[in-house]
């Protein structure tokens, strides 16, 4: 199979950016060539998380069909939140925790949605199901997204599965969840144009 | 949570009928009250499978909102293939192996699609992931659907996962896969109005 690009929604938040990184890693481990990219510059919270775990910043794209014919969407499914040329691409995978709307495909695909607080909570389950080890750096990025989307477990969308995943990921990343969580959210509040979209 | 009705598409085939039965059993084991129903009378192939495993025939419904407010769709997602009052219902779960089209929800949901030959292949994976034992009768119905949708592994949509699931399910049901498979498909060929839809 030809290489896939993996990306979250436009105006990316921490879950959009890091779920592309974690799901691309998952696909690579499953033998599928995939590169995580982003549909915009990272915000200050995500900048903090990427620097904290010494991760590479994803390449920013505005179109994908000039590079690939197939893509994986994370943390979104609605075409108007996706890459500008989404209609010219085959969506092979979706991993998301939002309602489904303005989305359709010509062919069968892999679609995994669960009503949890964060896309990375679902990706954590994918790693577990496939018995693939999560590297410490990726675990740190994944737990950052769960903290961000659930406001450190205080949002009404937070579920028991989010808390369980965050605790396991914090252990893998050797993090103090409460202390790091407050630091991360504080880094984010500097941002004026913060989106309400999880 | 209030009771869910679980059903496959209109003009039900063996996968539509039996994936409702197997997924309702899975939901019940997960603590979710669910009843498998069908959107039409079963065809001759499905009749053969239900009788062979001494299973109850599902109740046929034409509307659901008079009974419940939420439903689970199996083996389909397109609203025009679903229950007539689908727009008045909350879709809480979908398990399917078709393209996504004419489907949308107001709220986040559980959606599990994979590009495999049969919905019951995916449901087999759900049981495995949750470590829930599959009763022999339900295993027999599930393998019947895989045989039906893949024409005993000869269809172009058949994947290695379908074959693996069918072999494991045949063992649970104490079936000779080849002999039973030919019998099942033969029972189905008596039917004139057989649909091409998997
Ligand atoms: Mn998001
Ligand atoms: Mn999210
Ligand atoms: Mn079908
Ligand atoms: Mn089917």
From TrEMBL, chains A, B:
Cofactor names: Mn(2+)
EC category name: hydrolase
Reaction catalysed by this enzyme: diphosphate + H2O = 2 phosphate + H(+)
Enzyme Commission no: 3.6.1.1
Keyword terms, alphabetized: Cytoplasm, Hydrolase, Manganese, Metal-binding
Cofactor binding note from Swiss-Prot or TrEMBL: Binds 2 manganese ions per subunit.
GO cellular component: cytoplasm
Intracellular or extracellular location(s): Cytoplasm
Coiled-coil positions: none
Residues bound to Mn(2+) 2: 15, 75, 97, 149
GO molecular-function terms, A-Z: inorganic diphosphate phosphatase activity; manganese ion binding
Transmembrane segments: none
Protein name per Swiss-Prot or TrEMBL: Probable manganese-dependent inorganic pyrophosphatase
Gene from which this protein is expressed: ppaC
Shown stretch of the complete protein: 1 to 198 of 309
